[in-house]
């Protein structure tokens, strides 16, 4: 089985005050973008579970039972089958930056859920897989679903959002990742009463009409101040992207990847060339969104 799974950006990320379980209530709009990891899964001996990874940032991810794809495979086996009768050998080709605020780990978990449930011929429907996904991480249900969706709760309660057309994004990928729990912890220090959980009506209108100029003005992230506090260089990255012609700029999720919205493909090419030439980030990528969530490709 081969599964392709996209990265996400948060077009808006409203974060409420921390709850007793340590999680924050969110109002977020996710968009899946055309930067993909690929996971392959093949049968192995009963009880044998393994993973190999190559590509972007794999030295920062353990290929053991702590890996989110391994945890996903074991969870599917445990819930839908018999763990001691099933086995899988997985490999992941990573392109999504690790700890980049683009849900790379969640994407791999989503891919493993889908690949294993099909490989082992288990009777799991998409809704059941999304519920399992939510146990692994708040972003996993969206990695399965893809497209554009509003997320509430921990970010795991999803409703698709009506959109028109494709948007062109340029991503500035930072040298080192940022830890999601650390960014939320700094958010708590900076914003003890929490941020804004209002439904982003203007943003939804901009998405429905496909108006990139309006969308650029609505991008908002309550975690941005915390990410910038931990990584001050990000402020300059955002400013440079705007100076070089982006319609809007945002830190993606808990960062440090910055996403710049462009008017069209030509503008995205021009911005990516400029950002690369200025050495603003470790890598610059052009992507489009929305794209579908985790999908079997063979
Ligand atoms: C911030 C966001 C925005 O989409 O994305 P990333 O920047 O990680 O991609 C997500 O909320 C991250 O989702 P995900 O990375 O799946 O989170 P989890 O593994 O469930 O949780 C990691 C840690 O993040 C914090 N966390 C996560 C979600 C949430 N609603 N409130 C939280 O406080 C908790 O400290 C938790 O221990
Ligand atoms: N398969 C995986 N791919 C990426 N990260 C993983 C994976 N499994 C576990 N992790 C861990 O999850 C953490 C978050 O990574 P990631 O999901 O890439 O970033 P983010 O939460 O910023 O979107 C990292 O510390 C990483 O070591």
Structure commentary:
The chain is of the alpha+beta class and 298 residues long. It has 2 domains: 1-158, Ribosomal Protein S5, domain 2 (2-Layer Sandwich); 165-287, Alpha-Beta Plaits, CATH 3.30.70.890. 35% of the residues lie in helices and 28% in strands. The chain is built from 10 helices and 12 strands. The chain has helices spanning 68-80, 104-119, 126-136, 140-145, 180-190, 201-209, 212-218, 224-230, 233-243, 265-278; strands spanning 2-15, 26-43, 49-55, 88-94, 148-152, 157-160, 167-173, 220-221, 248-251, 258-262, 283-289, 295-296. Strands 1, 2, 3, 4, 5, 6, 8 and 12 form an 8-stranded mixed sheet that branches. The protein has a 4-stranded antiparallel sheet with strand order 9-10-7-11, with helices on both faces. Strand 3 (49-55), helix 1 and strand 4 (88-94) form a beta-alpha-beta unit. Helix 1 crosses helix 3. The longest helix has 16 residues, at 104-119. The termini are close together. The model has no long low-confidence stretch (mean pLDDT 96). Adenosine-5'-diphosphate (ADP) binds at residues 60-61, 67-69, 98-106, 108, 180, 253-254. Catalyzes the phosphorylation of the position 2 hydroxy group of 4-diphosphocytidyl-2C-methyl-D-erythritol. Residues 205-279 form the GHMP kinase C-terminal domain. It catalyses: 4-CDP-2-C-methyl-D-erythritol + ATP = 4-CDP-2-C-methyl-D-erythritol 2-phosphate + ADP + H(+). Belongs to the GHMP kinase family. IspE subfamily. It is an enzyme of class 2 (transferase).
């Amino acid at each position: 089985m081969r599964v392709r799974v996209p990265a996400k950006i948060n077009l808006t990320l409203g974060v409420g005050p921390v709850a007793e379980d340590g999680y924050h209530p969110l109002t977020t709009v996710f968009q899946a973008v055309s930067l993909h990891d690929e996971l392959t899964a093949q049968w192995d001996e009963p009880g044998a579970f393994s993973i190999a990874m190559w590509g972007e940032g794999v030295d920062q991810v353990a290929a053991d039972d702590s890996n989110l794809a391994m945890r996903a495979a074991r969870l599917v086996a445990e819930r839908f089958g018999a763990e001691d009768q099933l086995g899988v050998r997985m490999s992941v080709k990573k392109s999504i930056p690790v700890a980049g605020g683009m849900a790379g780990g969640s994407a791999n978990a989503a891919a493993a859920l889908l690949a294993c449930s099909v490989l082992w011929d288990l009777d799991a429907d998409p809704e059941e897989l999304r519920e399992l996904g939510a146990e692994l991480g708040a972003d996993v249900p969206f990695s399965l679903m893809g497209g554009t969706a509003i997320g509430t709760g921990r970010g795991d309660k999803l409703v698709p959002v009506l959109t028109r057309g494709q948007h062109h994004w340029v991503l500035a990928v930072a040298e080192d990742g940022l830890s999601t729990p650390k960014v939320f912890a700094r958010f708590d220090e900076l914003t003890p009463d929490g941020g804004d959980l209002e439904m982003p009506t203007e943003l939804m209108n901009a998405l429905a009409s496909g108006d990139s100029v309006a969308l650029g003005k609505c991008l908002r992230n309550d975690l941005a101040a915390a990410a910038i506090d931990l990584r001050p260089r990000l402020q300059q990255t955002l400013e440079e992207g705007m100076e070089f012609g982006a319609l809007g700029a945002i830190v993606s999720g808990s960062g440090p990847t910055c996403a710049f919205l462009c008017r069209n493909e030509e503008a995205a090419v021009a911005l990516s060339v400029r950002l690369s030439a200025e050495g603003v980030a470790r890598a610059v990528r052009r992507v489009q969104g929305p794209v579908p969530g985790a999908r079997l490709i063979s």
